[in-house]
Batch of 2 targets.
Target 1
Amino acid sequence: MTILEDNGVDIRWSIVDDPEVHGYDLTVVAVKPVKYAYSIPRYSGDREVTERHYPVDYLNQLLEDDERTERVEDGQLWHICVQAMKEQPLNTPIDEYVIPGTRACSNDFTLP
């Protein structure tokens, strides 16, 4: 993962060599002071292994949409996890579609 000067992150991960891989789930975790976790929306079947994301802007919008008053401030602690997924029907819990042993998480980080 590379932290960008504009509060973005470039996320890269290794290809999982498994015939059941249909795509990857990326979960961003705001650790503290704001606590929140969300998945980065990706197209079904997207097997790309890079993603550019702007967690501050994205989370602030989610907080606003949820009618929560807190906002991300300097010093927010984050980490990002990636896991390989089997093909999953729409509107179903992901748990049974995660390919075991493929979850990897970054170390905690802050943005400039």
Note: Residues 55-65 form the longest helix (11 residues).
Target 2
Amino acid sequence: MSSTSLKLLQPGDSVMLKRNLDHPAWKIQGPYDEYSGAHTLVPDPNIKEVLGTATIIERRDIPGTNTGWRDRKEQSLVRLPNNFWYDLATGLQDGSGSTLIELS
């Protein structure tokens, strides 16, 4: 998915809400790894990836600052009815990354 197309989203647009299957929240403990001394995480085959569609209810464009103290990168976010914000540069849920949006 091109992040360029996500950046054009506005309130009222419909998106597909999916789980980010690469996120540890959707993985299970796998076989023991002798090299690292720990169990590996593998995708859980029982997890459904697609959660459904949702309509964007709010968009927020946050300007970046470069003051030398508490710098902030420029960011565009959209909010869905689940009240989570999604970064339009990546499509990932802001702060977590456990779910993501794609154009529907």
Note: The chain has one helix and eight strands.
